[in-house]
Design brief:
It is a single chain. By secondary structure, this protein is an alpha/beta fold. The protein has three domains: 3-83 and 154-223 and 310-374, FAD/NAD(P)-binding domain; 94-147, no CATH class; 224-308, D-Amino Acid Oxidase, Chain A, domain 2 (2-Layer Sandwich). Helices cover 30% and strands 27% of the residues. The strands form three sheets. Strands 1, 2, 8, 9, 10, 11, 17 and 18 form an eight-stranded mixed β-sheet that branches. Helix 3 (62-83) crosses helix 6 and helix 3 (62-83) packs across helix 8. The chain is globular.
Length: 375
């Protein structure tokens, strides 16, 4: 029987980054994926690194967001150095676009949220916004420039992170996913794989929206898939420097000239189909932001499945099973939270302490809610 210091169920970006951190710390690590690693949510993302809170309900995420965004430049430097790949990292900021009149109080509230979070944001007029991004619509009413935003090519980044982890000694297994946790009493001894058991002192569940399908893991990782459809466009007439946002969609420029347009949020089980309605919604939104994109060439369309938790917050940390850790449920923030998730898992495994309070994201919160309901 194979034995490791740590085994990781899931070979996406979160699993790969954890493997890199643990292997770099000297642990014997293995990653197991049911298919080719990195081909699920990590592959389908738009690659945004956006620490800004999406809503007041997500305010508890801001310290984690900020810590991860700050960790990104060094994390990318390591990954690129170890893999030899350039991951297309761009820190050019983002522009929120308001196409209808917005009350001054609402704008002030958004700016205050950013200020409290320690994020740089400034209101710009329609004229100033058009000067910053000449391709955007003249119908803009106002804009907010968010200076802390960045993006990267998530597909290259995921491949590079897997290669970096492998270069540090992590073993990556394709086509051999986890069926169940290997539990004995209150201890998790490893994983039951498609090919049999594998033993480890530490077991990390990082299988994205498939985490709940691993027998024994659903109580700690009750995640469901949230489908997002995306379109890749190319238009010689359009040059964007920043990521563009509205309430319902975004445009992300890539270093290779493509513009990534997305995205939908659909709860349709494990269906990955690209639909006419989803693409129409995205394209209509893109045209409203950048009219010249009506002339763009559609280079690719795809859909991915984000792992969403009941409260839309990530699920990270130890459980009441000795040796069992969870790292999933990142929903729309998987790319952003990659470095900090890997760092905190490594800290816990090596010292049983973490440098950032992660209690709000504990897998045990779902157990506590169940106990409260049945009391």
């Amino acid at each position: 029987m194979r034995t490791y210091d740590a085994v990781i169920a899931g070979g996406g970006l979160i699993g790969a980054s954890i493997a890199l951190e643990l292997a770099s710390a000297g642990l014997k690590v293995a990653v197991f994926d049911a298919q080719k690693p990195g081909r699920e949510a990590s592959w389908a993302s738009a690659g945004m690194i956006s620490p800004s809170p999406e809503s007041a309900a997500m305010a508890s995420l801001v310290p984690l967001n900020m810590a991860s965004a700050k960790a990104y430049p060094e994390f990318i430097r390591r990954v690129e150095e170890l893999s030899g790949k350039n991951v297309g990292y761009r820190k050019e900021g983002a522009l929120d676009i308001f196409l209808t009149e917005v009350a001054g109080g609402e704008i002030a509230g958004i700016l205050e949220e950013h200020r409290k979070a320690g994020l740089q944001a400034e209101l710009v007029s329609s004229e100033q916004a058009c000067a910053l991004e000449p391709s955007i619509t003249a119908e803009i009413r106002a804009g907010i420039v968010r200076h802390d935003e960045a993006s990267l090519d998530n597909r290259i980044f995921t491949e590079a992170t897997l290669e970096a982890a492998h270069s540090q000694g992590a073993e990556i297994f394709s086509g051999n996913g986890a069926k169940a946790l290997w539990l004995e009493g209150q201890t998790c001894k490893g994983l039951q794989l498609l090919t049999g058991p594998v033993e480890a002192r530490w077991t990390v569940i990082a299988a994205g929206c498939f985490s709940a399908q691993i027998e024994g893991a659903a109580d700690y990782a009750p995640v469901v898939p949230a489908k997002g459809q995306i379109v890749a466009l190319r238009c010689e007439e359009v040059r964007l420097r920043r990521d563009l946002w509205t309430d319902h969609m975004y445009l992300v420029p890539r270093t290779d000239g493509r513009i990534i347009a997305g995205s939908t949020i659909e709860y349709a089980g494990f269906d990955r189909s690209v639909t006419a309605g989803g693409i129409r919604k995205i394209l209509n939104g893109a045209f409203s932001l950048v009219p010249a994109l009506e002339k763009a060439r559609v280079e690719e369309t795809w859909a991915g499945l984000r792992p969403d938790s009941p409260d839309h917050l990530p699920i990270m940390g130890p459980t009441d099973r000795e040796g069992l850790l969870i790292a999933t449920g990142h929903f729309r923030s998987g790319i952003l939270l990659t470095p900090i998730t890997a760092q905190l898992i490594r800290e816990w495994v090596t010292t049983q302490k973490v440098s950032i309070d992660w209690n709000a994201f504990s897998p045990m919160r779902f157990q506590e809610k169940r106990q409260t309901r049945t009391a």
